[in-house]
Design a protein that fits this description.
Helix content is about 5%, strand content about 50%. By secondary structure, the protein is mainly beta. Strands 1, 4, 22, 24, 25 and 26 form a 6-stranded antiparallel sheet that branches. It has a 5-stranded antiparallel sheet with strand order 5-19-18-17-16. A 5-stranded antiparallel sheet has the order 6-15-14-13-12. β30 (about 390-395) and β31 (about 405-410) form a beta hairpin. The longest helix has 16 residues, at about 60-75.
Length: about 625
């Protein structure tokens, strides 16, 4: 096994392991402040968006990926596996709370989230941004991404926003949001920095032109990370009028001074690394590794693989060494050989056999750095079962002599996994813990969200974070969009707690968008979720209304009605409610017409369940 874990070093003419213009180039730019906006003051009364549900016509690139998946199916057919991933005595992650972060999603949903130390949470999807209340477990308000960012001036008929990413900076106590505008010659990267720690407050916006080199390419599929001083954005350049599969022209890295963004400087400094290649072949889909237990820097590391291969064992480790102002324009690329091969995953099966869920290719989708390790995940075919699984890898001594320490394919023969992410979850007993989250589906299970713990040695059973109630069926084609990514962030107040956001299938065959707070049992964080679902009906109502909810254990609850400013209107009832399904019946005839929330508060005063209703 040791000989398989060898590291292939790249020696360039000017010195060992350093990449220069031979396999990358870098150029500095500036961009003017495009505008500022206060999110809560943006008028967007209807949150309107038009979603095309026609299946895209397959082009050469998509047909190529479909052909690769056919090869995968022949080489690794579905079968009952003799072994799946091995669980240990490690307990599964505990769901403390979960709620609908946004009821509107595009195709694909492209879920991401961020939450501050003060519990101010932001959810982004195609093509909305929503502010949610951690304590209440509900969405406070939302705006369209285009309306939110209209200060940048891209507001014509052919302009639209998509592929949003959001992150929280725990050192600056600020948020950063990225979204893309249009494609081809209309393509821009729209980059927003919150001025304060209030995501509903002022945002400072900049925009970067996608076709910056005048080479008829545009920017697609953003991934983001931060260091102590800078913000990093990676993505793929796509040729005009071509698909992301066939039109790939290279991967680029944007390196931005984040403090300039927070300060709303008149011209922000950044540099672009492009033409990143190995032996003349472009490296594709570089994923930036985030800090695990802390924000790191000044260097930033990235991972990539051969994501379009039926089977491969190559992993690229790329390093940008320093801040823009250092003038260091060398790029370090190392090529590692994994002891376990990965490959393009099959599409996800659903109970409705007329539709599948697209898993795309086998690119790296999550990574973090802590100590001397990088842990990362990607989607892969599981050779033993033919199902879509998760490749989990650990690279040790990444800064000096990187080598694979651990690899494992996580799979269940009756399920398919997609769009995984990974987040640091503590280091008890000197063993670095991780929470791996993912979307799941299967021939006998509706699409939902799952998670498992890695305790430094083995894996826990799967926690079904959010179970679906129906297959997803939005497009007119057999293949339905899924993902394209899942949000995951450590709770910076409580290492061992992780927030995630993903999708599940609803009973109307639409996408559901779910945010959840998970706790590691390894750090004795044992807060358990006491409820699973709640609903209110009829809504609107004139007189009688019913509030149905399910409890996982007997709980003392205080029911109260609040106005939309959060002021209590009246206390309705205090009662011990039994485990299982419950229903509160209430007469609201005495309430003035308007919008309200009804809350079921636990004994500690925190809202356990919240539903909004309208009194006519």
């Amino acid at each position: 096994m040791a000989d398989m874990r060898k590291l292939l070093f790249i020696t360039l003419l000017i010195g060992n392991y350093l990449a220069t213009a031979q396999n990358a180039r870098v150029k500095q730019y500036t961009a003017p402040l495009a505008g500022t906006v206060v999110l809560r003051d943006v008028e967007d009364n209807y949150n309107a968006q038009v979603i095309n549900t026609e299946a895209p016509v397959p082009d050469a690139g998509k047909l190529q990926l479909m052909d690769i998946k056919k090869q995968v199916a022949v080489q690794f057919p579905y079968k009952r596996a003799n072994v799946a991933y091995k669980t240990t005595a490690t307990a599964a992650p505990i769901v403390e709370k979960g709620y609908v972060a946004d009821s509107f999603t595009g195709i694909p949903p492209d879920n991401d989230m961020a939450i501050s130390k003060a519990g101010k949470a932001v959810s982004v999807v195609n093509s909305m941004i929503a502010i949610t209340d951690d304590a209440l477990g509900k969405m406070t308000f939302k705006r369209g991404l285009k309306t939110f960012s209209n200060a940048v001036g891209l507001n014509d008929f052919n302009d639209y926003r998509y592929d949003p990413k959001i992150m929280y900076d725990p050192e600056a106590d600020r948020f950063i949001c990225v979204m893309l505008n249009a494609i081809n010659e209309l393509n821009y990267i729209v980059l927003g920095f919150s001025k304060t720690n209030d995501p509903a407050g002022q945002w400072n916006f900049y925009k970067f032109y996608g076709n910056y080199n005048n080479d008829t390419t545009w920017f697609d599929y953003p991934s983001i990370a931060i260091t102590k001083n800078e913000f990093f954005l990676t993505g793929n350049k796509i040729k005009f009028n071509a698909s992301w599969q066939a039109g790939f022209a290279g991967t680029v890295i944007y390196q931005v001074n984040k403090q300039d963004g927070y300060n709303a400087v008149s011209n922000i400094s950044y540099q672009i690394w492009d033409s990143i290649n190995m032996n003349g072949i472009q490296i594709r889909n570089l994923y930036p590794a985030k800090g695990g237990s802390a924000i790191l820097g000044p260097s930033q590391y990235f991972l990539s693989n051969r994501n379009f291969d039926v089977q491969n064992d190559t992993v690229f480790l790329v390093k940008i060494p320093d801040v823009i102002s250092s003038g260091n324009t060398t790029l370090d690329i190392k090529v590692l050989t994994s002891p376990t091969k990965y490959g393009v995953p099959p599409d996800g099966r659903q109970p409705d056999t007329s539709v599948t869920l697209a898993t795309n290719d086998g690119r790296v989708l999550g990574a973090y750095i802590d100590g001397d390790e990088i842990q990362f995940v990607s989607t892969t075919v599981s050779p033993g079962s033919g199902s879509a699984g998760i490749f989990h890898g650990i690279i040790k001594d990444f800064a000096t002599s990187p080598v694979f320490k651990h690899t494992q394919i996580l799979s269940v023969d009756t399920m398919d996994f997609g769009y995984p992410n990974i987040t640091y979850a503590g280091n008890p007993w000197g063993l670095r813990q991780s929470l791996i989250s993912f979307n799941y589906t299967g021939p006998n299970i509706n699409p939902g969200m799952g998670a498992m713990m890695f305790d430094g040695v083995g894996y826990s059973p799967i926690t079904l974070v959010k179970t679906g109630t129906g297959s997803i069926k939005r497009l007119t084609s057999k293949q339905q969009r899924w993902g394209d990514y899942m949000g995951s962030q450590v709770d910076w107040n409580n290492i061992g707690t992780v927030w995630i956001e993903g999708i599940y299938g609803r009973s109307d065959n639409d996408y559901g968008n779910w945010m959840a707070k998970l706790n590691s049992p390894l750090l004795s964080i044992n807060k358990k979720q006491t409820f699973t679902e709640s609903k209110i009906y009829p809504n609107p109502s004139v007189q009688l209304m019913y509030f149905e909810f399910t409890l996982s254990e007997q709980t003392n609850l205080v029911f109260a009605i609040y106005d939309m400013q959060g002021k209590m209107v009246d206390k309705v009832l205090e009662q011990t409610c039994k485990k299982g399904a419950n229903r509160l019946q209430i007469n609201i005839a005495s309430l003035p017409a308007g919008n309200y929330t009804i809350q079921a508060n636990a004994a500690d005063g925190k809202a356990a369940m919240v539903q909004t209703f309208t009194k006519q």
